[in-house]
Design goal:
Blueprint lengths: L4 H10 L2 H15 L1 H5 L10 E6 L5 E7 L2 E5 L5 E5 L1 H9 L4 H6 L3 E5 L1 H13 L6 H5 L2
Family: Belongs to the UbiT family.
Protein name: Ubiquinone biosynthesis accessory factor UbiT
GO biological process, one term: ubiquinone biosynthetic process
């Protein structure tokens, strides 16, 4: 089966940043609301991490400002790169995140301390990716 990455990249290039922010920020902040309220993301204040599918597109840069996760334009201080399948595996928690990095299915570039800090935080949190939890307040 061919990779959906080229199609996703073409769509990604056509979607304006304000629409990406509108679609992604509210679900991200709902997903991690408890951790944000408990100050778990405070160490990431003003920092940016880019998540990229192999090849650079599609990708998203996520930052944390004023108690909210935000989708921003531009590069991150750290980049976590991998295949769509590796990110899906990570999000669904079907495999230990450290294994994905040791197997080089996910790679951290740039500020590796920042990237590892985020990976460790996400690994320590409980989250529910069910559409009802993520999409609806």
């Amino acid at each position: 089966m061919p990779s959906p990455a080229p199609i996703l990249a073409a769509i990604d290039r056509q979607v304006p940043m304000p629409l990406k922010q509108l679609v992604a920020e509210a679900p991200l902040n709902r997903l991690f609301a408890k951790a944000i309220a408990e100050g778990e993301f405070d160490d990431f204040e003003g920092r940016r991490v880019r998540l990229e599918i192999n090849g650079g597109q599609p990708g998203a840069t996520i930052g944390f400002w004023a108690g909210r996760l935000r989708v921003v334009d531009g590069p991150g201080e750290a980049t976590i790169r991998g295949s769509l399948i590796a990110f899906k595996t990570l999000a669904e928690r079907r495999q230990d995140p450290d294994q994905l990095f040791f197997q080089r299915r996910l790679i951290i570039e740039g500020d590796t301390e920042l990237g590892l800090g985020l990976k460790n935080l996400l690994d320590s949190l409980e989250w529910d990716l069910s559409p009802r939890r993520v999409l609806f307040p």
